[in-house]
Amino acid sequence: MRIRRSKHNKTTNSSTLENQIKLEFHNTSDLQFKKFKVASLDITLAFLKDISDPIIIQKTIISPLLTVSDGDNSIQIEGLPDLLPIASIQKVTDYNSITEHVMDGCTIIIVRDKQTQNVYVVDTIKFIKRTPDEPVNEPTISGPRDGFIECIQDNKTLLRMHLKSKDLIFEKFTLGTDVSTYIYLVYLRGKTKETLIQEVRDRVSSVEVDYVKDGAILAQLLERNKFSVFPELTSTQTPTKVANALLEGRVSLLTDGSPTALIAPTTLNMLLQTPDDYHFKWIPASLIRMLTYITAFISVLLPATYISLVSFQHGLIPTSLAVSLSKTREGVPFPSVIEAFLMELTIEILREAGVRLPKPIGSTVSIVGAIVIGETAVSSGIVSPMMVMVISFTAICSFAIPNYQLSLALRTIRFFILFSAATLGIYGMLIAIFIVSTHLVKLRSFSVPYLEPFAPINIKEWKDGFIRLYFKAGAKEDNVNE
Amino acid sequence: MKRKHLMVLIPLLLLNLSACWDSDEIEDLGIIMAIGLDFLDEESARYSMTNQYVVPNNIPSSQTGGSVGTPYQNMTLNGDSFLSIIRQNSLESDRPPNYTHLKSMVVSEKLLRNEPINNIISFFLRDHEFRRTVPVFITRENVEDILSIEPTKEMFPAVQIKELTQNIDRSLNVQDNLDFGDLSKHISDRSSFVIPEVSINQNRIRLTGAAIISNLDHKIAGWLKPDEVGGLKWIKDTVQGGVVTIDEEHSGEEPVILEINKSNTKIEPVLKGDQLSINLSVNASLRLAEDWNVERNVFKPGWDKEIKKNSEAVVKESIEHVISLAQKEYGLDFLEFYTWVRIQHPDYWMKHEKEWNSKFSDVPVNVDVDFTLTGYGTQDIN
Fold it and tell me: Is the bond preceding A139 in cis, omega lying within 30 degrees of 0?
């Protein structure tokens, strides 16, 4: 919008164009212009030297043009692209996009003879990137070990490599009014419902912000339930997960400069799965799947159950356990509720400390936390050993949840249920569970029920729910849009 | 918006249904493992009640090693009603008694001679803290003494008493637990029943038969000796194991001991006109366990004939003895024949329900015992 171009006079003075570019970039020092003559043509190259690769510019633009002999007058302005050994050279007719191209690391070629002026754009971007290593927080046992990186071009490459299909579609969006960020909407045509794609398109294009910093922030901008703790979009850094999701008919969003890919719609079932589930034979894989579900339940309910039993429904504890519990709690100064909150607080602090610290010191924190604090807290009688066991087991269970965002959500829910249990015992716990499950049943991620396939019930889909049934060769999936 | 308000309101309404909810830390409770009831009949107090508290500090743990004292404390207090005695506990014990972990209840003979059992039990059935699974025992000893006997393998006398009846599959003489639930069922059925009896034998707790509670006055009518309990179990089809001993008296030879594998008793009331008779047939499979007649050759076909005949006679005799006790001596149907009559001949039962005790005494009972000997063990020394 910014470079004004006269509609009447196509042969705008090129120096004006150059000046306009200069003006647009506020005369920044890394904006470079190079002028030279080839035969009868005046050529000006414009590029940002920090993100354009000078070697590419030199090899693909300057040296081929300079080898053209001076006397060769057969070169026409329209024939210039044929001289350049580059796959992607585009003619720019809309001068408004020039700034955008320059920011992308492209080189603008302004060619001028006496009458006309043509503008071409050549991709000469210089990448600074790391290798697509295995993501730290999503380790896998047997699957592919590549991970997304900060360079969206490479992320797209990774996806193309994982899904060799002509149906794999990338749709580009540009978000942000101040700083623009490219978002790619990825889906498999034919596998994905058209309504879903349209909904994601609508939501993405309705985002109006100054800038989008990261995929995780985009996820929050796209969410509709602001007060829910459950993630509406799954974020992942492994191409395998995205590829699997695309094959299931979901869509994915890639954000430029972010290794986080988003998957929508998200269901609770999906958050509790790992790609590893599919790499093992179905019976052990199903057992692992069930274990994950049990783990999720334990990580939410165990402390609350313990509190309810110890301070409300004593009669439900087996007698011998009740007797030994009352012995171990003898002399503990706090009621079990306070004790539980103290311990939970300690664990959360330890966990945060472990995340923030550099790796070599991180292990020290866990040693100090687990052994020194835990052990001495028990032996000095501040907390009962049973409570330490309950809380640490809960923490371990929450580590075993495959998705970190879900694990965070469940942590929050755990505190809510713990608080309810502390006020009303098992009855309070049930009320809290009732509230949480009402919320979950009502929750939708991109028009898909969050608890699918459990609520609304769809037994057919349970083959990939609590269990993971065997694969059947020859089973053809229906096209969703038919 | 209205819907949203409603969503918040509905869970809040649930808070009204919380009933008694206040929290009580487990270490602040006086967990009661056993109660013993006794009759005093003194001027000051009519009853005495012993509560067996858990003393958590004295529970031996793996860390501290040897125990410091007994892990339980018996508190015997007197009063005119049970609830008032329980409340009196608060004068001496800082931890309020909690009965959700009650393991056994021991009632003295003296109390049951003076008070009908339905009066005694009514409070315990009514109160919400008492579970219907608490077993009741009767004793001719002092109740406090029974609850003070140091158990050797368990931690609490209460558990020891209760767990003794776990041996019903080991011995014919162990009468199965009678818990609060059964008791209330018998009382509302207006039937006679038996309560297992415990006593002290050389400073150990021992199961010694059972007491018969009459359905007329709900008091003790008589006692069953341990071997009579065996006969009762054959009749009530509660035999789960045990031994049958053929002594010299029955066989004229060295004693033979058989172990019961499986047993099934069928009771069939037969009505001819207005004349009721009962066919009782026992089918059981047994195994030769101990044989003092080493000359016996078990590899010869028909080796078991003699044993079978003798063992059947032994069991039949004990069954008939218990039936005659019930019919002739006490005139009380603690054998529970009435359930079969009620089920199979409801018309007859409706007519004679009121006079069942006297009818029962005259009902002819045909006892038929049929045993199968399934083996002679791993090895025979011949």
Answer: no
Separation of CA A197 from chain center: 18
Which of A226, A228, A319, A419 is best to mutate for the B interface (most B CBs within 10 A)? A319
Among the partner residues B11, B59, B98, nearest to A327 by beta-carbon distance = B59
- Sign of the CA dihedral with A340 first, then A342, A348, and A354 last: negative
* Nearest CB to B59; choose among A324, A332, A425: A324
The answer to whether residue A121 neighbours chain B at the CB level (below 8 Å) is no
pLDDT in tens, B186-207: 999 889 999 999 999 998 999 9
Q: Is omega for the bond preceding B157 within 30 degrees of 0, making it cis?
A: no
A275 φ, ψ to 5°? -55, -30
> Cβ A311–B25 below 8 Å, yes or no?
yes
Question: What CATH number belongs to B231-381?
Answer: 3.30.300.210
pTM for this prediction = 0.84
Distance CA B147, CA B162 (A): 12
- Give me the percent of chain A exceeding a pLDDT of 70: 94
What is the count of residue pairs from A and B with beta carbons less than 8 Å apart? 82
Residue B34 near residue B106, CB atoms below 8 Å: yes
CB B180 within 8 A of CB B130: yes
Domain range list for chain B: 29-59+69-224, 231-381
ipTM of the complex: 0.83
For residues A321 and A384, what is the distance between their CA atoms, to the nearest angstrom? 14
| Residue of chain A whose Cα is closest to the Cα of B33 | A319
Residues B31, A325: C-beta atoms closer than 8 Å: no
